[in-house]
């Protein structure tokens, strides 16, 4: 489980394509200092399993499902990525509960600079819109953000200077894809209420 508070701006060192999957080698001295084989690290919001670590770098295997359903498939050597280790039990929940399971991808459609921040508009698949509400939580490329305004197939967020400086969202351009994870509590609530309504209908 993650919190959406990016610890380090890392870099893709190499991508080894292996048929319908790939092995990524990424640089992240901070997140690898206590990582070992089998540990998890979120890369742009995608929970990956560490295969090896050495000299501030780690490797992770990415299967076809992840390459198809996230923006990781478009990454090449030199790309910057947001990195986060799992939250320790008893640690502070600085953002919100993030699983590292991407629900879909969106596209940055507009960036509007403010005096000390930026408002960014992002498209999202229509099937996810019911989970996104004004002032609710959403994860964009692994960054926990608060929704400013939610539309039918888009939403906006405001990025403070720290987010612009310390994450990939500071350099992403209009047209760039981003990974989206909606609030898991919204999905569970929908499922539970849906089952209850179905049961009541049969009663």
UniProtKB/TrEMBL annotation:
Which Enzyme Commission numbers does its entry carry?
Answer: 2.5.1.9
Gene Ontology biological process terms, A to Z: riboflavin biosynthetic process
Keywords attached to this entry: Repeat, Riboflavin biosynthesis, Transferase
InterPro entries from the xrefs? ATP_synth_asu-like_sf, Lumazine-bd, Lumazine-bd_dom, Riboflavin_synthase-like_b-brl
Lumazine-binding repeats by residue range: 1-96, 97-193
Any single GO molecular-function term of the entry would be: riboflavin synthase activity
PROSITE patterns noted in UniProt: LUMAZINE_BIND (PS51177)
Pathway stated in the Swiss-Prot or TrEMBL entry: Cofactor biosynthesis; riboflavin biosynthesis; riboflavin from 2-hydroxy-3-oxobutyl phosphate and 5-amino-6-(D-ribitylamino)uracil: step 2/2
Q: Which reaction does it catalyse?
A: 2 6,7-dimethyl-8-(1-D-ribityl)lumazine + H(+) = 5-amino-6-(D-ribitylamino)uracil + riboflavin
Question: What are the coiled-coil residue ranges?
Answer: none
Give every Lumazine-binding domain span.
1-96, 97-193
Query: Which NCBIfam families has this protein been placed in?
Result: PRK09289.1, PRK13020.1, ribE
Q: What does this protein do?
A: Catalyzes the dismutation of two molecules of 6,7-dimethyl-8-ribityllumazine, resulting in the formation of riboflavin and 5-amino-6-(D-ribitylamino)uracil.
Q: How does it assemble?
A: Homotrimer.
Question: What is the designated name of this protein?
Answer: Riboflavin synthase
Question: To which species is this protein native?
Answer: Streptomyces mobaraensis (Streptoverticillium mobaraense)
């Amino acid at each position: 489980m993650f919190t959406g508070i990016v610890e380090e701006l890392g870099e893709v060192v190499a991508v080894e394509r292996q048929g319908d999957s790939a092995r990524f080698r990424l640089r992240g001295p901070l997140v690898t200092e206590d990582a070992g084989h089998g540990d998890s690290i979120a890369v742009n919001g995608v929970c990956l399993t560490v295969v090896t670590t050495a000299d501030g770098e780690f490797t992770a295997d990415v299967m076809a499902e992840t390459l198809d359903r996230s923006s990781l498939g478009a990454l090449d050597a030199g790309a910057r990525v947001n990195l986060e280790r799992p939250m320790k039990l008893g640690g502070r929940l600085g953002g919100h509960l993030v699983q590292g399971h991407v629900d879909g991808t969106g596209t940055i459609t507009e960036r509007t600079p403010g005096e000390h921040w930026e408002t960014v508009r992002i498209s999202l698949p229509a099937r996810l819109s019911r989970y996104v509400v004004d002032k609710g939580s959403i994860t964009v490329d692994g960054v926990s953000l608060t929704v400013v305004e939610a539309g039918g197939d888009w939403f906006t967020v405001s990025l403070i200077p720290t987010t612009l400086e310390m994450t990939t969202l500071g350099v992403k351009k209009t047209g760039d894809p981003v990974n989206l994870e909606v609030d898991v509590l919204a999905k569970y609530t929908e499922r539970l209420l849906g089952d209850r309504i179905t049961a009541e209908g049969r009663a």
